[in-house]
Amino acid sequence: MSAKMSGFLKTVLIVMLILCIPLSFVLAGIQIHSYANLNREVKALNEKQYKLIDENRRLVSEISVLTGSERIEKIAQEEYGMRAAESSEILRVNIVGD
Question: From CA 28, how far away is CA 17, in angstroms rounded?
């Protein structure tokens, strides 16, 4: 290779290296920005998850209160005038299969 060509290649290489340094800073800045956005999103999703878990606990507690046998019996007696059947009022039916 001629000296002129060798000098040109060195110059091109140096220019490329000089351009890579600011480019790497720009790319690092973009990556930091993306990481910060993802971090905010993760925090928001965690907060939403905690709220949903808390609401689920509250709903499960409500269900257990609403399905309690004492509550159901009280509503049946007070609102519908129902009562527990006496043993003499119970009719048993046996179905015999083929």
Answer: 16
Cα 19 to its chain centre, rounded Å, is 43
The mean pLDDT value for 50-77 works out to 94
pLDDT the model gives residue 31: 96
Q: Which amino acid is at 38?
A: L
End-to-end CA, the chain: 104
37 to each of 25, 32, 68, how far by Cα in Å? 18, 9, 47
Q: Give the integer Cα–Cα distance in Å for 26 and 20.
A: 10
Contact predicate 65/71, CB 8 Å = yes
Q: Is the backbone of residue 93 left (phi > 0), alpha (psi -120 to 50) or beta? A: beta
The answer to whether residues 76 and 82 touch, using CB atoms and an 8 Å cutoff, is: yes
pLDDT at 41 over 90: yes
